[in-house]
Specification:
Number of helices: 18
CATH topology of the largest domain: Serine Threonine Protein Phosphatase 5, Tetratricopeptide repeat
CATH architecture of the largest domain: Alpha Horseshoe
Bound molecules: flavin-adenine dinucleotide
Largest sheet: 5 strands, parallel
Number of strands: 5
Number of domains: 3
Helix content: 40-55%
CATH class of the largest domain: Mainly Alpha
Shape: globular
Strand content: 5-15%
Radius of gyration: 22 Å
Strand order of the largest sheet: 3-2-1-4-5
Structural class: mainly alpha
């Protein structure tokens, strides 16, 4: 019987998972695996920026997502095996123990994730990987992925001219191959124990994405319920008007943590938008939401084109700009002790909850880069450690954009903090709310 391994990466779901569907169709028996080792460190940091570990928030959301994935797999007669170690060590051992003929997984185009796959390939195991995290697949684009338009607006206009409908998402499979019979000889992680070891982080009533509440918890089932709830009401219509909000659960879709872990497929979101528009008519809110999902595609595709260049201090620029990184400034920024009230309030929220509105992410990133003169990659690494919706492509893409080291011809975005505070927090209620962590 042909045994295969399915390695879950940033695709912690059963619905619309073509790589998993393909593995299931080819396997006599299938072992679904997750390697915790990949998620236990910050991959894009440098020692001189200080030791960074994924926050309790990030770890908690991941464990919840894995527990949910395991439950979903068990409902189909399978189960998730979680191993604690780097994929390059653990997966070849598992493949040998099971006599598996191949490891299937999704493709991720960021340097660390790409090197994980390269190392696996060197182990001699056959790897079948598949790109599946964009709304529009690279081979469906009206240009080659290497010839991505340099400006986002050109990118989305070219897409709008060429593609009318995204491909529909695949449903949750009705069955999966059985687990291999000889699945012994390797240590596995008990997720509930791991969660208990993490310790209880107490609910934070001020949070805009309260992941400790069941409806915002990590995992596919909560993601699909949230999607149905969000598009079942009137919030999508108001999205364009409210998306620059700073606090509360309703000002934006709050889909990011699920999209980032892959508990939710972006094609599922696009389908929900299309169904909403059929019911409620086209409107500026859903139109704008779709544009944000295209930013998400754009930053993913940028990684296919430029890869590791996006992780250099100079990014895509020809010349290296002076780097005046100051670790004392950086530490004060991380802890919310800069003396700039809006920045400090935002950094307190990030520390306390692992989430921050898009507007405040822009303000604090701009402040670190353009006011404190720090290395933008240190800020990106801090976000990688803290965010419950950390997504390597979106994070790197946005930081590059604000630093002016990416494709944007305007050369960076500087936000005037006082002006932003007056415009978005005129009563200073947000600043009072997050005066302390
Ligand atoms: P909504 O406004 O409801 O948007 C819906 C979805 O569209 C989001 O879930 C996200 O998948 C996508 N999206 C929205 N804005 C952007 C954007 N600017 N770029 C790319 N995709 C976008 N987003 C992440 O998912 N992970 C990150 O690690 C991340 N790091 C960021 C770092 C900086 C410096 C900045 C300025 C932005 C970053 N973003 C990141 C983008 C954005 O802030 C979040 O996606 C958004 O705030 C999440 O909340 P939401 O789901 O309610 O977003």
């Amino acid at each position: 019987m042909n045994t295969l391994i399915y390695w879950f990466r940033n695709d912690l779901r059963l619905h619309d998972n073509p790589a998993l569907t393909q593995a299931a169709a080819q396997a006599g028996s299938l072992l679904p695996v997750y390697c915790l080792g990949s998620a236990s460190a910050v991959h894009n940091g440098e020692p001189r920026w200080g030791v960074m570990q994924p926050s309790l928030h990030r770890q908690r959301v991941l464990l919840d997502s894995l527990i949910d994935l395991d439950a979903q797999l068990r409902a189909l007669g399978s189960a998730l095996t979680v191993v604690d170690g780097p994929s390059a060590d653990m997966l070849p051992k598992l493949a040998r123990a099971l006599d598996a003929t191949a490891i299937h997984c999704e493709t991720i185009a960021a340097p660390h994730e790409k090197s994980e796959l390269d190392q696996l390939q060197q182990s001699g195991t056959q790897i079948v990987s598949r790109w599946q995290s964009t709304l529009h697949a690279p081979d469906a684009l009206p240009f080659k992925a290497q010839d991505l338009p340099a400006v986002y607006t050109q990118f989305r206009r070219a897409l709008a001219r060429a593609i009318t409908q995204p491909v529909a998402p695949l449903p949750i499979p009705s069955q999966l191959p059985p687990l291999p019979k000889t699945a012994h000889g390797y240590a596995t992680v008990n997720l509930e124990d791991q969660l208990a070891r993490l310790g209880g982080n107490s609910p934070e009533p001020r949070s805009s994405l309260p992941y400790l509440q069941a409806e915002f918890a990590g995992g596919e089932r909560a993601a699909l319920s949230h999607l149905a709830r969000y598009f079942g009401g009137e919030l999508p219509r108001q999205y364009k008007a409210t998306r620059n909000g700073l606090t509360g659960t309703d000002f934006s879709s709050k889909l990011s943590a699920w999209l980032a872990s892959g508990a939710l497929s972006v094609r599922q979101v696009a389908q929900a938008i299309a169904q909403y528009e059929q019911r409620a008519g086209p409107n500026e809110g859903t139109e704008w939401l779709l544009l944000e999902l295209l930013w998400r595609d754009y930053f993913r595709l940028l990684h296919l084109q430029y890869g590791a260049k996006l992780f250099r201090y100079r990014g895509l620029r020809d010349k290296v700009p002076p780097n005046h990184h100051d670790s004392a400034h950086f530490t004060r920024w991380c802890l919310g002790r800069t003396g700039e009230p809006l920045v400090d309030a935002a950094m307190h929220e990030l520390l306390a909850t692992g989430y921050l509105s898009n507007r405040l992410r822009q303000v604090v990133a701009s402040y670190l880069i353009h006011d404190l003169g720090c290395d933008w990659r240190a800020g990106a690494a801090w976000f990688e450690a803290q965010l419950i919706d950390y997504d390597v492509y979106n994070n790197q893409g946005n930081w590059l954009y604000i630093a002016g080291m990416g494709t944007d011809p305007r050369g960076g975005r500087r936000f005037n903090v006082q002006k932003q505070a007056l415009e978005h927090d005129p009563e200073q209620s947000y600043q009072r709310l997050w005066q302390t962590v």
